[in-house]
Design brief:
The model has no long low-confidence stretch (mean pLDDT 97). Helix content is 20%, strand content 24%. Strand 6, helix 3 (150-163) and strand 7 (167-176) form a beta-alpha-beta unit. Helix 3 runs parallel beside helix 4 (183-193). It contains four helices and eight strands, in the order βαββββαβαβαβ. A six-stranded parallel β-sheet has the order 5-2-1-6-7-8. A two-stranded antiparallel sheet has the order 3-4. With 199 residues, the chain is α/β, with parallel strands linked by helices. It is globular, with a radius of gyration of 16 Å. Bound molecules: pyrazine-2-carboxylic acid and zinc ion. Pyrazine-2-carboxylic acid (VGL) binds at residues 10, 15, 48, 80, 117, 148-149, 152-153. Zinc ion binds next to loops.
Length: 199
């Protein structure tokens, strides 16, 4: 599979138990992900990387409850507990994640006004992160995605990649979900509809 890559989404302290936006069992996938890395000629890690006071943080919007919804110029947006602040401990990769085998680390969510769930586009669905160009110039066409969270960053990344023409597989055994108001079920249906292979 010389044209394939493993994309490891947001395996960071804040998405693991004890973190600011903890995903149940987020730490349970780390060893399995490490074990998969040597099977791929390319390994890319993504890192959620928000400036302090990011517009997607509940703490930034007066009186807003974490996990409530707001309307942004680019559409509806969940207001998350403040998380993955640039340079913070919570933004670091899980200490057991093997970052040595990564060819590239892609940071996203650094635009203060736009969130970025997807590794390919910000939440306006039009501002590119550059990952598509990176993969295409390396001749990579097949992507296997793992990480956190199944229903947000993995989902948006997988659907965008499929729509861009990549062959995409999501290994759900190496993902964990937030599952906010049925978001996991909707994400699974959306990924399947986009042609993502769910394993
Ligand atoms: C994520 C919510 C906010 C994720 C990132 O990695 O799924 N979810 N930021
Ligand atoms: Zn985030």
């Amino acid at each position: 599979m010389p044209d394939s890559a493993l994309i490891v989404i947001d395996v960071q302290n804040d998405f693991c138990p004890g973190g600011a936006l903890a995903v149940d069992g987020g730490d349970q996938i780390v060893e399995g992900i490490n074990g998969l890395m040597r099977d791929f000629p390319a390994v890319i890690l993504t890192q959620d990387w928000h400036p302090e006071g990011h517009s997607s943080f509940a703490g930034t919007q007066a009186g807003a409850a974490p996990y409530s919804m707001t309307e942004m110029p680019y559409g509806p947006q969940v207001l998350w507990p403040d998380h993955c602040v640039q340079g913070s401990e919570g933004a670091r990769f899980h200490p057991s994640l093997n970052t040595t085998l990564a060819d590239m680390i892609l940071r996203k969510g650094y635009n203060p006004r736009i969130d970025s769930y997807s590794a390919f586009f910000e939440n306006d669905h039009s501002t590119p992160t550059g990952l598509e160009g990176y993969l295409r110039t390396r001749g990579i066409e097949k992507l296997t995605m793992v990480g956190l969270a199944t229903d947000y960053c993995v989902n948006f990344s997988a659907v965008d990649a499929a729509n861009l023409g990549f062959s995409v597989t999501v290994r759900t055994d190496l993902c964990r979900a937030i599952d906010l108001d049925g978001s996991l079920k909707a994400a699974m249906a959306g990924m399947r509809a986009a042609g993502v292979v769910i394993e």
